[in-house]
Design brief:
Distance between the termini: 81 Å
Shape: globular
Largest sheet: 9 strands, mixed
Strand content: 25-35%
Strand order of the largest sheet: 8-7-9-10-6-11-12-13-14
Helix content: 10-25%
Number of strands: 23
Radius of gyration: 26 Å
Number of helices: 11
Structural class: alpha/beta
Length: 453
């Protein structure tokens, strides 16, 4: 009897190999290779085969190109991240850590969606009773909302075809399985097949599908990397364990920009939108404390103020410690070297800690100047003026470079009550100075340190 064929998959990246290995040759993870039965593909019959209903190529001029049909989800922050609302017939993947609020977010949007459409909520982790109790606690209306506790893919597809809902929510994709496959639920093969079936439902029937996905220990979506290529939108729901604020950002969006964020706050009655994230991020900011500086970054078309904190202390060991939270580690090390070489501050024997308040991740160069100012303030133990913000990119020679959307940033800085703003001396474009805001123009980090501390 022939031995059944098997393949080996990496649970981190989805790479396939013909034999087991301790280390994945693709992503380098250890002990992530698992064995799965190979799916045998049926060979087509010999000779020409003609199938009824086979699609034929269309001339480019005959293809109808109309704007996609969008609808509001009831949450402005989610609509902003999606690019102006959800698109009919799209497949959206929402990923996040356990307990971050993915299921709560999906259940809360049902409150508005049920007003003009029918919603089928499929859960493989909770029973109908558990979902209803949570919905009652959140104040979700029950008109037009249908619940189904099922993990079998065929039963879910049959229920969708019989119910014909406008929106389908699946929580979560790792619990759904296809009984035609011998793989266990949550495996690479099962996740690929189940997502492919849901994609066909979305495209063929015009159903808008929201799929909840888990993340692995590395912080990326669990399952094969091809999963992110199959869906239309990939949303990451992020937040710290001891922080009530949650940030929703788009890693992929075929219908809009990927640099927008939505800010929520987890309360007793569920997630509450934060329409003014700058004010929320700066709440509780200490006065007259060294090592803190405020900057303004652009999240899509929205300017957001963020507080950058730095701490320098003499190291008790031979190699000082370097730690960064919310700021790119390599760029923070570069700012430290520039400050020591061009700014004249001896920081090589100091422990270095950087933190961005509110769970934000600053990845644009406009936050460089605020980090340099915070480091200098901590080193000299002199506080930065409470009503001052810093915006600018720092080069390796210590010069300050201009950044884009300066007028929008300055308007947000002035709106939040700041009276001074440190900016590069040279800026591209005409700057409109808001009333009540004084601009301090500097050309390098030495001038910035001299002005402030």
């Amino acid at each position: 009897m022939a031995k059944p064929k098997s393949l080996f998959y990496c649970t981190e990246c989805g790479n396939e190999t013909i034999k087991w290995q301790g280390k994945c040759p693709s992503c380098g993870s250890w002990n992530t290779i698992v064995e799965q039965p190979a799916v045998e593909k049926k060979r087509p019959a010999a000779g020409p085969v003609s199938r009824l209903g086979r699609r034929k190529p269309k001339p480019f001029a005959e293809v109808e190109a109309v704007d996609e049909l969008r609808f509001d989800t009831g949450m402005n922050e989610l609509d902003r991240v999606l690019g102006g609302g959800a698109v009919k017939g799209s497949l959206v993947l929402v990923g996040g850590a356990p307990g971050i609020g993915k299921s709560t977010l999906m259940l809360q949007i049902c409150d508005n969606l049920c007003r003009f459409s029918s919603v089928l909520y499929v859960s493989g982790e909770e029973s109908e009773r558990q979902i209803k109790l949570r919905a009652q606690r959140l104040g979700i209306r029950d008109d037009g909302l249908y619940l189904l506790a099922e993990t079998n893919l065929d039963d879910i597809v049959a229920a969708v075809q019989a119910q014909n809902p406008d929106i389908l929510i699946v929580d979560s994709i790792q619990t759904i399985y296809n009984e035609d496959s011998n793989s266990s639920p949550g495996s690479v093969a099962q996740v690929k097949e189940c997502t492919m079936a849901l994609m066909h439902l979305a495209k063929d029937m015009g159903v808008t599908v929201f799929v909840v996905g888990h993340i692995n220990k590395e912080g990326s979506l669990a399952g094969p990397k091809v999963l992110e290529h199959m869906v239309d939108c990939v949303l990451h729901f992020e937040g710290e364990e001891h922080n009530s604020y949650r940030i929703l950002r788009a890693a992929k969006n075929r219908f809009g920009a990927t640099n927008e964020i939505g800010v929520f706050e987890m309360m007793d009655k569920g997630l509450v939108e934060v329409p003014n994230p700058s004010e929320a991020m700066l709440s509780g900011r200490p006065e007259n404390m060294p090592g803190s500086c405020v900057t303004c970054v652009m999240e899509g078309v929205r300017p957001v103020l963020a507080e950058v904190q730095a701490l320098l202390s003499p190291s008790a060991y031979g190699s000082p410690r370097r730690s960064s939270n919310g700021f790119d580690q390599n760029r923070a090390m570069m700012m430290l070297a520039v400050l020591e070489k061009r700014g004249g501050l001896m920081l090589s024997n100091c422990d270095f800690y950087v933190n961005v308040i509110g769970g934000l991740t600053l990845d644009e160069p406009a936050a460089d100047l605020s980090l340099v100012v915070a480091l200098a303030s901590s080193f000299r133990d002199k506080p930065v003026p409470y009503d001052l913000a810093a915006i600018g990119e720092v080069g390796l020679t210590g010069e300050l470079r201009s950044v884009n959307a300066m007028n929008q940033r300055l308007s947000e800085v002035q709106r939040l009550g700041f009276t001074k703003c440190l900016i590069p001396a040279r800026n591209s474009g005409k700057i409109v100075v808001p009333m009540g805001l004084d601009l301090v123009r500097v050309s390098n980090i030495r001038e910035a340190i001299a002005v402030l501390v």
